[in-house]
Amino acid sequence: MLDGATPNVVTEDGLRDLLSDGYLIEVICNQTAEKRHNSWYGSWAVHAVAEDGQDAKLLVTSRSVFKLREFKTIVGLVSFLADMGCLSANIPLIAGRRERHAASGRPATATS
Fold it and tell me: Which domain of life does this protein belong to (predicted)?
């Protein structure tokens, strides 16, 4: 899952493992959202955090590149959260705000 060299980052697969171990998803708004036509745009990042809020791990696209996994639309972010097993989504719209989500690590279904 994680090696000792880069303890503060995690890939999507690693995030799924952490969620099954009780971690939470923390969504962080990096750029205040704005509505354009019928869609909301901004910049959001995702951390995996232990239930006590400690041991935050930033979601990256690859363990070798360490590029931040950034979400630019609310639709993309909600789709990601549903794929991670979130049954609801509370999205911070103002830069600096954070919201935590419990998730199973498996896609949400109508019967979850």
Answer: Bacteria
